[in-house]
Structures are given as C-alpha cells and as structure tokens.
Design goal:
It is built from eleven helices and 16 strands. With 376 residues, it is of the alpha/beta class. It has two domains: 2-63, no CATH class; 86-362, Metallo-beta-lactamase, Chain A, CATH 3.60.15.
Length: 376
C-alpha cells in the first residue's frame, strides 16, 4: 500500500479515522524534530478529534497495491502478514451494533468504543449512575470528549466512574488518563511494575520498527513513549489478584508486551479482557487496523519487549478457556472458535507471533534488570 497526500473526502469509512490519526501522529513526530532543530511551525487543531469536526492540514489517501490479505499471496510482505494471523470464523464476532451512546455492547455490563487504533472498555450496567461504573484504559490523545460523551449517554448525565483500571501504560491506552483522573477525581489502578510509566519517573523502551508487518510498525518511532503522571491518583492492584472496583473479577499478570501488563478475568461467565497480550487484528498493518477482519494475533510486535514472557502470557490465557475475549485492538470474539484459535496461537506462538527479526527478540527488556525503564 502506498500513501499519497490528498483530500480526506476522497474516501470514507474506517480509512477516514485511520488517516486522520496517522497523519496527526506523523505531524507530532515532525513537530518534535523541528523543535529540536530550532525550527518552529504552527498547525490548526490538536489531534484527530478537533472541535466542530475540524481536520488536520494534511490527510492521507490510500492507494492499494497488490498485497491485500485477500486472494493468493503476491509478495513477501503479504506472505509475512499471512503468517502472523490465525483466521477466525466471522460468526465468532461478539460485538453488537454501534449503539446510540457510541459504544458496542458486549454483554449486559460490558461495552467498548474504538478510538482510531485502540479500544476503550466501559464496565457497568446502563444507567448505573455516578460512581456506578469503571473505565478500563483511557484511549489515545484527543479522545477525552468522546469518552465522557459515551459515558454520560450510557450511565447518566454527569456519571463519573468509581475508578479507572489500566491494563498497561502505552500511549494508546493512557492518552487522556491524566485529564480524566483530574476531572473525575478517581483512583487509577495498575500493576506495580507499570507504575514508573504512570508516575512520571520512567519512559518505555523505544519501539522497534524493524519487526515488519506494515505501516503502523514503520510509524512506531514517532509514537509517544514518555510517561504520564497520575501519581496523585495511582494505586497498586492488590497482590491477592482482586480488582477492588470490579467485584467478581481478578487480574492476571501478562507481561511481555509491557512488563506490568494485566488481563482481567471473570470466572463466573469466563469473560476475559485480554489487553494486548493477544489481539484480534494485525496491529502492525494500517489496512488490517482499518477493516478489522476477525483473526487472532500475538501482541503488537513493535512495542513488545520480551517475547518469552509474551508466549507464557498467551499460554496462561488459553488455559482459562474463555467464552468471551475483549482485546485492546480489534473486535471481541467468543465461543469455541475463539478458544480453538487461542490454543493454536499458544501452541504455535513462535511461528505466528514472534517476528523473524527485531531488537527485543534477541535482547528483551526486563523489569528485573531495569532495562525496561528509561529514566532521564
């Protein structure tokens, strides 16, 4: 796929959201580099969700080449993409239609909302009211208004959550956590190993664009990796595995993609919130992110820092035999097709998920030796 500068109105649908976001990310990286070089610039707006429907100054128009995931393989890029996926029957999709609140219902007390490349999850019954629900992860930069709007439509006017639970601290999961924690005055729960990324004391290791897979991986050096600071609100998930704001749930440590990543598990109905331990779209590929055909993948490769730990995390989650899985990227899946694909991923993880090359394939970043934390 090649990319050209052109008017956004030349295409629509899922491409539009992706184009606005990727153009903005690229511009953020360029502005940072310009500032470092002493060059200044100005742009209208503050991200892909500008007020009153405003848009970035430049947009991207996709021009498809011959490496789509349909049809016979036509080149090394498509063959590599195909090797990274486990197809899943479309009937395994568990997402309901887009509701009036802007979310997709996934069972009576769970809904998710897609923000460009990532999912935000709302836990609580519709109409739960103030402090009657929980936000799981906090989207990308610029998504605050959309999250608040969806929450108020789903739970009631002015309804604030009882807590924010973070599966991990990558930029696309904590984009507006500082703003929301401050406005809502809520605790932010996370694994202790993730705290340095959330209290302002350490940045993530650099992403690895050499893993391949598509445009998103190639753009990854532009992604923010500096820590956020919610130290005034930050709490450690208890060692007993409980999730205080979510009775009946427990957290499971799933390192690999990040050293302190957690999944959330409800045994009563075998519901799994998998974070990025595995995902249901090829997150490295702009095309796959846009269309989101149901398939199972390992964690996004460009941010995963320990592949041995990532393998063990997938194996542990497969052993739970989930009935429903909501992931950080892609559509939720359910049923026997989900379980079969997850067991295949666990069994063939090194073939399906691990890139053929990459810095962290040979030299993982770990919490134990401090290599996972980049301190200024």
């Amino acid at each position: 796929m090649l990319w050209q500068v052109g008017p956004l109105k030349s295409f629509s649908g899922p491409w539009a959201s992706w184009a606005r976001w990727s153009t903005w990310i690229a511009s953020v990286g360029c502005r940072r580099r310009w500032r470092q070089s002493g060059v200044t610039t100005e742009r209208r707006g503050h991200g892909p969700w500008h007020a009153e429907g405003g848009q970035p100054d430049l947009e991207l128009r996709p021009r498809r080449q011959d490496w789509s995931t349909k049809g016979p393989a036509r080149g090394p890029l498509q063959r590599r993409l195909m090797s990274q996926q486990i197809p899943v029957d479309p009937d395994a999709r568990a997402d309901g239609p887009l509701g009036s609140d802007g979310t997709h219902e996934v069972g009576g007390d769970l809904a998710y909302q897609r923000h460009a490349i990532v999912n935000v999850i709302y836990y609580g019954r519709p109409g739960a009211g103030d402090r009657g629900w929980v936000l799981i992860d906090a989207g990308v930069m610029g998504s605050k208004a959309a999250i608040i709007k969806a929450a108020e439509k789903r739970f009631g006017t002015g309804a604030r959550p009882s807590a924010i639970v973070l599966t991990h601290g990558h930029f696309d999961h904590v984009g507006v956590v500082e703003d929301l924690a401050r406005e809502w005055q809520v605790p932010v729960w996370a694994h202790p190993l993730e705290h340095p990324y959330l209290n302002g004391s350490a940045a993530y290791p650099p992403p690895d664009p050499t893993v391949g897979g598509g445009l998103v991986a190639r753009l990854s050096p532009l992604f923010p990796r500096a820590p956020v600071d919610v130290s005034d609100h930050l709490k450690s998930l208890p060692e007993d595995g409980s999730v205080p704001p979510m009775p009946g749930w427990r957290w499971i440590h799933t390192p690999g993609h990040s050293v302190g990543q957690v999944a959330l598990w409800r045994e009563a109905d075998r519901t799994l919130i998998a974070a990025d331990a595995f995902v249901t779209t090829a997150q490295e590929s702009a095309y796959a992110v846009a269309v989101q055909e149901p398939e199972l993948h390992g964690p996004p490769m460009y941010f995963t820092v320990d592949w041995d730990a990532a393998r063990r995390s997938v194996q542990a989650l497969a052993g739970l035999e989930p009935e429903l899985a909501i992931t950080g990227h892609g559509r939720p899946l359910h049923g026997s097709a989900l379980r079969k694909a997850l067991h295949t991923l666990a069994r063939d993880f090194d073939i399906v998920a691990v890139p053929k090359q990459g810095h962290y394939v040979e030299e993982p970043a770990k919490a134990e030796d401090g290599s996972a934390y980049r301190r200024s």
